[in-house]
User: Fold this.
Amino acid sequence: MKKVVLCILSLTLVLSPGIICAAEPVTSQPTPERFIYCTVCHGTAFQGNRSLDAPNLSILGTWYVKVQLMNYKKMIRGGAGAKNHVQEMQQMVTALDEDAIGEVSAFVGTMKSTPASSTIFGDSARGAKLYQSCGTCHGADGLGNETFGAPRLAGQHDWYLERELVSYRNGSRGAAEGDLYGAQMRASISMLEDEESIRDVLVYINTFNQTLNKN
Amino acid sequence: MPRHYSRRQLLQWVGSAGGSAALYQVSVALGLLPLTRSVKAQVVKARGERRSVVLLGAGLCNLAITYELEKAGFDCTIIEASGRIGGRNLTVRSGDVIDEIGQPQKCEFDDAPHLYFNASVARIPAHHHLVLGYCRELGVELEVFITENRHALVQDDNAYCGRPLQMREYVADARGFMSELMSKAIDTRVFDAEFSGEDAERLSAFIRAYGDLDKQGRYKGSDRAGYASGGMTTPAIKKGTLDFSELLKSNFWRRGMHWAEAQDYAAPLMQAVGGNDKIFKAFLPHLKARIVMGAQVQTVTLKEEAVQISYNEDGQRKHITADYCFNSIPANIMNGIPNNFSKNYRGGLASFGRGKLMKIAFQMKERFWERQDIYGGISWTNQPIEQIWYPSHGINKQKGIMLGSYAWTNAHSEWFGRMTPQARLDEAIRQGTKVHPNYADYIENGVSVIWHRMNHQLGCTSSLSPEARNKYLKLLQKPEGRHYMVGDQISYQPGWQEGALSAAHHALHEFNTRVQLAKTG
Assistant:
């Protein structure tokens, strides 16, 4: 495998003396016209965009996207007091009825997973130990589990997961009435006692195989 | 190392280090160029096969680049994500749709030539040579935009019980009180160390003139504040003076009072007759380029000798490969479009922030402000609406479009942005009533343009912090492969047309150098 990578790298070097390009982007299926505005923030492959605080949706299963959109719709997420970008998302969902939520969730569910690149540094070995309890719901490989309402983590942006974990801890996420899975997560967050633990566990999550099919 | 450089050596050095814009500025400073110039971008004539160019975004910058490239014989295609040409140069008129994500609005203004407002691009300073040069070249008629109006109002909840004051009264008294203090300081000879003899006398006279003080150096009010009454067939009665401590409680002295002193806001400013969108529209009849509308770019792929773009058109995925690409997509949206740029270049694109500005406009059934001596200009308030603008165009007509708010503070724009369009109008009316009682009685309808919520733009502007600019702007001003990042974002003047056109000319200079090298090499 290493040899192949080296070959490709050296070939690229020979071909483009001026610049070294990353891998060419893969085009995905066209987004239906009525959902294009979702991609303005979340990226054209639903891969997320940190500049606009938008998480990676391409890795998520239909069921999770639907649950969260409904949470926004019911103001369980994005109510007064939430951060501006969360309220912005809430605003986007007000225009969608349940059928549209079903449709867009199903479409996002068919997207090919685009893995995120890591931005956080920490102690992966310590993170692996801490992750053991997380894995009970989210799966040992971070692929998530619908039965427990646990989303896929493998391939999600670490900056997003960090932000959400902090939000669970301080109650700006998961504390609203009716947020069943959020309440579970809020109860579990105490296992990550400080910022360093959060970073370590995220560094470990970044080691998961991000290209596996989603469930 | 030689201590003296010839002009030629210096210009060569400046040109290679700072590009054409720097070269121009230094040339002006050395007296080698006339200060006003016709704006010509020099582009090498296209020859042979390499002549296809794809431009991402149909805003002013790319329209100008297309205009220049086509004159030199290049074949251009423009890909535009939204349903309209012009980008953030947006003039809103009767029937227009404001394409805000999630909650589009329709403008209900009456259909009349003067009933419009410029939602972003609003004013052109005299030193914006590229904008003015293109207006001259393309025949765009200009008129004066009233940037400061001393008859406009100043309102602050924390001063004078929130009562609005005429700006001229505030400014005259502020200067009068300050000058009186200075005058007293002179009397106590605190300046003796620095000023003596004639200098001290001149300073004393300067202070009296600056504040309109009496011969004893006392401020007793000034006709600069406007008369309380009379002055024509009866004697003029001066206004009494304001309370200085109340005056200081108002926030007006922090920003609004000095607004028209600033580099880009000093009078006179200009606007295009009939709406500032006339500026970008003036390019269109001259362009041959195919403009693909409603086409969101999906990927940007740098190839060895080309740039490949994939985009959506009518629900289909399409591809176009060109020899060169000029990209004006806001960097924070480009960050969500898969590409194969180098890591450093991507780092630059990822460091752009999202400018949050917003305007709320009302159609007024009567131009009531003109009966209060306010013709154009801006009133200032410490409330989240921040500014109220009176149109410079359509003076003395029955109706007018007035800006009920122009907010620059992120928190204010975010707050309005989270509301429904109707709630924004209601809130602007509530606040505006403190500046103009009975304000609501004149309002017929209104619209809001929340720039950080506008589809395919999500900000006005997309701009770098000073630190990020130091780190990345030079890199982003250079081509990445055959791809040039452009737009006002790639300049020190984000949010200004001059920034967009300067970035256009800078990129054309880079482009030119490459094409010339390819010809000679």
